[in-house]
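Hi U.,

Before I forget, here's the chain from the pilot set. I'm dumping it here mostly so it's searchable later in email.
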Amino acid sequence: MFAGGRSESPAAAIGEDARPMASQADTRRRLRDAALRAGELVAGTTTARLALAALAETVDLQAVPEEVRGPVAARLARVPAPEPLPFDRVERVLRDAWGKRAAAVLDDLRREPAAVTPGAVVHRGVLDGRDVAVKVRRPGLAEAVRSDLGLADAIVPLFGALVPRVDVGAVAREVRERILDELDLEYEGSVQRSFARALRRHPDLHVPAVHGELTHEAVLVTDWVEGVAVGDLSGKSERLRAAELLVRFHLGAARFGTVHADPHPRDALLGADGRLAVLDFGATRRVEPARVDLAVAALDALAAGDGRGLGSALASLGWLPERDGARALAPAQDIFAPLLGGTATLDAAAARGLARRAAAQERALLALLPHAGVAPEDLWPLRMLGGLFTVLARLGARSDWLALARRALADGWNQ
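Structure:
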């Protein structure tokens, strides 16, 4: 039922010009074929291996719908765990970056890595008596990923006919630029420094300071932070606090003007003092305040059942024409229903339920697809939302997620 109180039939909910089932079956087939072709293009690339490794670390298989859980589990099980870099190679990267041996710069550098990821290793060191984290990008990674980026020009057009309102060239450029940013640890350090300064006196959120004089395209040095990774928290109250602070940080960052687009259960630590420390600022993007205001308007309209307001906000964002945006209200309310009605548990079962409801709304969603568009500047904010939902579902906390999200988007970190 829309804000005006008029009951809508299923056909009206997706529009009077709803396409025949045969046409929707064709759209479904073309989506599948495009996805398969895209998979064939990227199979075996360094970028694909990095993406699969990230999924293997973050996805809770219990949150995956039962009908696809087996194949997903089998595929992720084949992803090898990242291996540490030989210490002499770490020292070589540091010498190339600093122009002198690590022992001449640091008081100490532990041989065993503190963290190993598909893209980098982190060693604990000591600088002028202060514990630091020394992040070293894997040699050859940047060159390998850069050679993969040309595939964006081949992959994005596969979906162009299905979403004709999307500027596929602009999307491909956006993907290339953002991934190139992620390869540059000096850029990452500059972004992290801005977050660290903004949060240096915050009572609940913390970002470690960057040692800029030692940070380089392939090396990032920051203060060391003690804490328990949110993915390892066991206490109910700790998981709840971490979950609520993650929402405050990631959605509040949009109001700050830069989204951290890659939430990860390993890169957020809950300290003994109750503060949440956030790490790894490689995947970020600037966000215009006006787009955040529109996101708040869309969220408010969705919660209020205001089809006209939702249509206006989505049209201003460039996602759907106003008439189609209003028609998106009914399926969106159905899909997100448990999260719109106050306190709710966000866990693996909730994630499976959302997937089931989205599948049940397939006809309505396919009817909207030809009219849909996504501005390139929204890709990384949407990546942030997907990653945040995945991490929150692992924590299994219970809260009023709509109120938290709305407050963080509207007020930022100052709550």
